[in-house]
């Protein structure tokens, strides 16, 4: 311990080992104090406590302190020393004397300073001061105006609040009040500095090293404030009735107001200063705090053995939710006594783990016990117990000694971590300094005479509004409702664009997008319209056609448009997009856009740049024309806009504005509608943007030595990197950025390992993700790495995320200074071969293509997206490559849409039918409803694959009929009782085979998905009921039924596919070119989707969590699987032997699948047969036909 004689500003320290010995200290703590009591630890960075010391006896290790220490006493506490020697230290301290003016307040006085009015500057004000106190509340500074304005700097619960109230409540709304809170644990009896700078309406508020910048709202100047400033309290009680708060009790140092030393003026009794009783010195209160560093810390104090009355009181402060405060064995084996902090409560009081000092006093006399917390009677508890209490020998505070079975101390609880002070036993204060000098008592792992509690939530490292909570050695972020995730709420939960949602396989709907990823902008809701191109649609508050009359230049009609996102969010979205547009329609009758005489615009609009624009929809910037003026098609060729013709009839200038920099339209001004009979109307559509430039932005690295370089990556406290890669190489470095010692690197270490390694000053560490399959399969793989002060994490594709916690109390800043290398490295030779795409650093996309154009060995763009995204093309759609991305070709699919997932369905009325004729390749007909068709080729089918979906309540119905010229046929029928019947006649000499599927009635108005496959003589049938609520009510369908025996199908057919023909799609979308005959009323509808039969929207909107289509066929059908042989009814011919097996019937609540398999041996398909008449097809169900073979399942 060093006494410097007076308060000194220390700027550097140096240490050396003992002279000519093997004694030196390898690490130490530095502490400082004003009075030799109440010490404070010096911290270099946010969380670095220890200095590393010497490695030998003679060399000097010098440390320049990042921020100087102002103190009289210094303490060097050795932590570790040379194992072959002892503690030995030579110390030098560098600094200079520290001049200061101090004033002490007793909590009843205050100091008032009156400004010299001539020197008053209304524009700029600087107030600086230092203070120290043990009270957690008190007024530091106050200034008041005539009409209720005031500025107050107040200590509340150990934090400083700057309260600025402008104007009285009548004229100003509540947003005129500004309340900013900085600092924490400021009641620790150490000096804290405050600086308030105010210039115009910009205010900087600094406490210690934390600064808050803000703009004051409203007219913020000091003109309506009094020329008087009070320190330490509010002078006249009752002058403003709301502010009767607690005065300051403690010390001020060096109060300066615009350069005037106020304490010096007060000492010299200048006329500007009025004050109560105060002293020009700073008294140190004799309080000795104790810090419990770890859960094994304890303090043992002797008790008042055998006395009838037990009374103990102390104060504690902590962040932890639990800990043992006090444990003792009571005398004469009358049991033990425990005070325990659990879930932030001492027995019954709440929220004590908030870092504030809380007092606990416990007393017991004979058989009455009482516990009082914070001197608050409401938080007290009394109890009577049926036995006498006598004090024990020893009281254990904060924990129990290790080792031995200590009967006196109950160690079944977690030890206390935090500070205690003002401990008294038997109404007598305990002298902790004597305990420190081993006069009495016992302790372990304590810091005496300092409170080492620090606020880990200051500064708050939780980003995006995450809530910070803490314990003794760590802090935690709660990210609920922020839209972000991770240990510090850094990474966005949502995708950056609609394009990214589309490539997760999502359909159109409302989605939250976060256009700058982990950047400062919040997520917002847009509508994503997933067609072949992906459109992002952002609405505003005024989409109707609005008519305008009686507007002129003196009194223009101005309309403002407010969007569902802020301008910053819109700008980020527009910058990301490949193209944006907005439709602006201007209808006019005797209302011009441009005045020909003076060339002044009569109406204009304003965009994002806040500049007046006079070009209109469909035109280009810088030409004052409309679309018709560019095309030369205006109704009056002398003018460049239709409206400028000034005719007495309605005309319009309409088109899309597509100059990205000017969008969106925020304001329209119309002035020319005040002449008789003149009127205008405008309509502004939503902002439409398509594509995402960053999502497909990629580069191909063709040689191992090639790389791209970008500016240094700045992610000091939190950094995230995400990209896609595709390669056939077994290893390579994706990106690297170096510092003097720090670095960050992501590499493919082996074909199945991605490694994220970095160093922030605590030594290199790495996070490794192992993939079961190899990653060098030339498909796109997604990598996301994040590093924040809590942890580092790495995710590859959908594999589980690996993370690694950061060491406590280590370095936290990642300091890089080299360029950022992508696809290669500066330090090692092994570059990356392959493609990198969509590279984002902290949410900002790097333009790989631009940089690749000018870099040898690197090509912009990267072909081959189908190998990775081809599985997004469903239902037989084919993936087609594009330069940026891919598209699905649905030509041979019964579905449509960007991923061939949109059902094509039609509702059939009475007597409606669709015929598909194939005359050429193999003329085969397939009829969705009641009619037949023939084909005349010598082509034979020995297999079919048929799928379709239907919904009906009508029986009997014919769903499908296929016939050949040779009188062979196949039909699918719903019988009278609603069961499905499939008839195959493959040989004209035999009777048809009939299969009945009647596990339930299928005519129940639900969607039924039917799949029929025949491979020669094996038949496979699958029926899935898609059981969601359908919009088709059975009553309305029945009312449409004409006759019970009419042979049509009334209802919905959807997604019909026969081998590679999609007849329903051909009839609806290509009816002119395809060989289709349509009879009756036939309309496209959305009845085939699960949302129901309403045809308002053919696209279903899914929630964000639902990334699947409407049917998830991958679920296991595990409920009721049973296998048994079937009953075969009817007459079996001798020649043909038929075995039928039901392999499995699986019944489930939501989806019902029934699978049937049948083997049939049949004669040659090529023999002549008789074409069966269609009309008999339905009536056959009702007659008992002896000759046909029927199978019931």
TrEMBL record:
Q: What is this protein called?
A: Contactin-associated protein-like 4
Its localization reads: Membrane
Q: Which Gene3D superfamilies match?
A: 2.60.120.1000, 2.60.120.200, Galactose-binding domain-like, Laminin
As one GO molecular function, the record gives: calcium ion binding
Please name the InterPro entries in this protein's record: ConA-like_dom_sf (IPR013320), EGF (IPR000742), EGF-like_Ca-bd_dom (IPR001881), FA58C (IPR000421), Fibrinogen-like_C (IPR036056), Fibrinogen_a/b/g_C_dom (IPR002181), Galactose-bd-like_sf (IPR008979), Laminin_G (IPR001791)
Composition bias, Polar residues: 1089-1103
Q: Which residues cross the membrane?
A: 1126-1150
For this UniProt entry, what is the primary localization, expressed as one broad class?
membrane
- Domain Laminin G intervals: 102-282, 288-451, 697-862, 913-1087
Reading the lineage from the top rank, the first entry is Eukaryota
> Could you tell me which PROSITE patterns the record lists for this protein?
EGF_3, FA58C_2, FA58C_3, FIBRINOGEN_C_2, LAM_G_DOMAIN
Stretches assigned to the F5/8 type C domain: 1-96
Q: Among the entry's GO cellular component annotations, what is one?
A: membrane
How is this protein positioned relative to the membrane?
Single-pass type I membrane protein
Chain ranges of the Fibrinogen C-terminal domain: 489-540
Identify the CDD domains for this entry: EGF_CA, FA58C, LamG
The UniProt similarity line reads:
Belongs to the neurexin family.
Sorted keywords for this record are: Disulfide bond, EGF-like domain, Membrane, Repeat, Signal, Transmembrane, Transmembrane helix
């Amino acid at each position: 311990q060093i006494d410097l004689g007076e308060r000194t500003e220390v700027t550097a320290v140096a240490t050396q080992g003992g002279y000519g010995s093997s004694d030196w200290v390898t690490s130490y703590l530095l502490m400082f104090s004003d009075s030799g009591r109440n010490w404070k630890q010096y911290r270099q960075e946010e969380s670095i406590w220890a200095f590393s010391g010497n490695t030998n006896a003679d060399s000097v290790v010098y440390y320049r302190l990042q921020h100087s220490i102002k103190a009289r006493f210094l303490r060097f506490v050795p932590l570790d020393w040379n194992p072959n020697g002892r503690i030995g230290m030579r110390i030098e301290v560098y600094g200079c004397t520290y001049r200061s003016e101090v004033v002490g307040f007793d909590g009843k006085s205050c100091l008032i300073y009156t400004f010299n009015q001539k020197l008053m500057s209304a524009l700029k004000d600087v107030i600086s001061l230092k203070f120290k106190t043990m009270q957690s509340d008190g007024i530091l500074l106050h200034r008041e105006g005539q009409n209720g304005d005031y500025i107050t700097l107040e200590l509340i619960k150990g934090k400083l609040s700057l309260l600025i109230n402008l104007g009285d409540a009548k004229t100003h709304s509540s947003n005129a009040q500004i309340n900013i809170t900085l600092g924490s644990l400021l009641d620790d009896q150490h000096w804290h500095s405050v600086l308030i700078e105010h210039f115009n309406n910009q205010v900087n508020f600094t406490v210690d090293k934390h600064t808050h910048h803000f703009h004051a709202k409203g007219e913020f100047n000091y003109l309506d404030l009094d020329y008087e400033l009070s320190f330490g309290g509010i002078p006249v009680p009752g002058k403003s009735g709301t502010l009767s708060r607690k005065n300051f009790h403690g010390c001020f140092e060096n109060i300066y107001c615009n350069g005037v030393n106020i304490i010096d003026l007060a000492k010299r009794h200048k006329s500007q200063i009025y004050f109560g009783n105060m002293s020009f010195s700073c008294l140190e209160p004799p309080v000795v705090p104790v810090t419990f560093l770890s859960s094994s810390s304890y303090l043992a104090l002797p008790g008042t053995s055998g006395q009838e009355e037990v009374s103990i009181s102390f104060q504690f402060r902590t962040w932890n939710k639990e800990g043992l405060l006090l444990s003792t064995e009571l005398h004469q084996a009358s049991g033990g006594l425990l005070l325990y902090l659990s879930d932030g409560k001492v027995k019954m009081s709440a929220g004590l783990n908030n870092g504030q000092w809380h007092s606990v006093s416990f007393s017991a006399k004979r058989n009455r016990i009482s516990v009082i917390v914070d001197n608050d009677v409401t938080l007290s508890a009394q109890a009577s117990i049926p036995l006498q209490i006598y004090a024990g020998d020893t009281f254990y505070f904060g924990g129990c000694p290790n080792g031995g079975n200590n009967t006196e101390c109950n160690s079944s609880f977690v030890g206390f971590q935090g500070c205690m002070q003002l401990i008294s036993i038997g109404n007598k204060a305990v002298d902790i300094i004597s305990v420190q000098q081993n006069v009495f008592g016992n302790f372990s792992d304590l810091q005496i005479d300092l409170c080492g509690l620090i606020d880990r939530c200051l500064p708050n490292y939780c980003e995006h509004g995450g809530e910070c909570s803490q314990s003794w050695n760590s802090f935690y972020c709660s990210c609920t409702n922020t839209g972000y995730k991770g240990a510090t709420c850094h990474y966005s939960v949502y995708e950056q664009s609609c394009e990214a949602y589309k490539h997760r396989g999502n359909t159109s709907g409302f989605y939250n997008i976060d256009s700058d990823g982990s950047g400062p902008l919040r997520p917002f809701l847009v509508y994503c319209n997933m067609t072949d191109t992906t459109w992002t649609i952002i609405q505003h508050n005024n989409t109707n056609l609005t008519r305008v009359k009686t507007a002129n230049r003196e009194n223009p009609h101005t309309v403002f448009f407010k969007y569902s996102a802020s301008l910053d969010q819109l700008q980020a979205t527009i910058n990301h997009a490949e193209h944006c547009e907005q439709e602006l329609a201007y209808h006019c009758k005797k209302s011009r856009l441009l005045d020909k005489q003076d060339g002044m615009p009569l109406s204009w609009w304003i965009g994002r740049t806040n500049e007046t624009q006079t070009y209109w929809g469909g035109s280009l910037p810088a030409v004052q024309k409309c679309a018709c003026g560019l095309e030369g098609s205006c109704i009056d060729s002398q003018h460049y806009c239709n409206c400028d013709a000034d005719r007495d009839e309605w005309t319009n200038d309409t088109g899309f504005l597509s100059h990205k920099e000017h969008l969106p339209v925020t304001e329209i001004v119309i002035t020319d509608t005040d002449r008789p009979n003149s009127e205008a109307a405008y309509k502004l559509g939503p902002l439409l943007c398509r594509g995402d430039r960053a999502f497909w932005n990629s580069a191909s690295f063709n040689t191992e030595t090639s790389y791209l370089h970008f500016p240094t990556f700045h992610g000091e406290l939190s950094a995230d990197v995400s990209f896609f890669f595709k390669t056939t190489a077994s290893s390579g470095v994706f990106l690297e950025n170096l510092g003097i010692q720090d670095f960050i690197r992501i590499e493919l270490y082996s074909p199945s390992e991605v490694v994220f390694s970095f160093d922030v000053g605590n030594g290199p560490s790495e996070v490794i993700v192992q993939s079961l399959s190899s990653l060098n399969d030339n498909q796109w793989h997604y990598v996301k790495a994040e590093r924040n002060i809590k942890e580092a994490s790495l995710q590859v594709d959908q594999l589980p995320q690996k993370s690694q916690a950061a060491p406590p109390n280590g370095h936290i800043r990642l300091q890089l200074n080299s360029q950022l290398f992508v696809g290669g490295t500066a330090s090692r030779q092994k570059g990356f071969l392959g493609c990198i795409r969509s590279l984002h650093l902290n949410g900002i996309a790097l333009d790989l293509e631009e940089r690749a154009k000018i870099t040898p060995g690197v090509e912009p763009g990267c072909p081959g997206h189908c190998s990775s995204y081809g599985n997004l093309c469903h239902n037989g759609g084919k993936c087609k490559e594009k330069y940026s991305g891919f598209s699905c070709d649905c030509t041979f699919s019964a579905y449509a849409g960007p991923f061939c997932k949109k059902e094509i369905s039609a509702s059939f009325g009475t007597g409606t039918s669709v015929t598909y004729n194939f005359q050429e390749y193999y003329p085969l007909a397939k009829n969705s409803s009641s009619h037949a068709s023939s084909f005349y080729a010598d082509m034979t089918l020995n297999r079919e694959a048929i799928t379709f979906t239907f919904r009906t309540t009508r029986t009997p119905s014919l769903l499908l009929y296929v016939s050949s010229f040779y009188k062979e046929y196949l039909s699918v029928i719903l019988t009278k009782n609603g069961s499905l019947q499939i008839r195959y006649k493959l040989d004209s000499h035999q009777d048809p085979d009939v299969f009945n599927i009647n596990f339930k009635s299928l005519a129940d108005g639900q969607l039924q998905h039917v799949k029929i496959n025949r491979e020669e003589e094996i038949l496979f049938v699958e029926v899935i009921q898609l059981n969601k609520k359908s919009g088709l009510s059975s009553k309305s369908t029945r009312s449409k039924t004409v006759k019970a025996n009419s042979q049509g199908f009334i209802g919905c057919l959807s997604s019909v596919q026969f081998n590679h023909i999609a007849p329903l799609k051909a009839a609806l979308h290509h009816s002119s070119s395809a060989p289709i005959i349509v009879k009756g009323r036939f309309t496209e509808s959305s009845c085939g989707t699960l949302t129901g039969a309403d045809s308002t929207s053919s696209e279903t909107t899914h929630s964000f969590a639902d990334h699947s289509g409407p049917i998830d066929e991958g679920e296991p059908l595990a409920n009721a699987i049973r296998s048994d042989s079937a009953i075969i009814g009817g007459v079996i011919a001798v020649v043909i032997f038929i075995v039928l097996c039901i392999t499995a019937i699986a019944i489930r609540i939501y989806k019902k699948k029934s699978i049937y398999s049948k083997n049939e041996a049949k004669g040659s398909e090529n023999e002549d047969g008789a074409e069966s008449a269609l009309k008999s097809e339905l009536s056959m169900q009702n007659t008992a036909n002896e000759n046909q073979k029927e199978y019931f399942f």
